[in-house]
Fold this protein.
Amino acid sequence: QVQLVESGGGLVQPGGSLRLSCVASGRTFSSYVMVGWFRQAPGKEREFVSGIRRDDSTFYADSVKGRFTISRDNAKNTVYLQMNSLKPEDTAVYYCAVRWYINNAPMTSTKAYDYWGQGTQVTVSS
């Protein structure tokens, strides 16, 4: 059984920073094909934000490129999402997800991922 727990969300002013954490239990992150961060704003579909592959390749949505950084600490079985220069449009519930099985879904699709965390709220507002 795999469990993912996100933390680090909160209320921050525009231009501020937050660091989200995703801790896995049951399996180590290094054994997954990919770990991704998604977000879902009210009334919108869940969208890909960032991902880190088993070979440490990283990927970002255009909307966060240059502002967000994904990283992994295998010793702590944790994946981080450092978010800088936050904007009001970054407000959403952020989810961590892992891809264990390779399928035909692109890495930006929610269908590519097998396990999900419960999410953490990020609110960017003055």
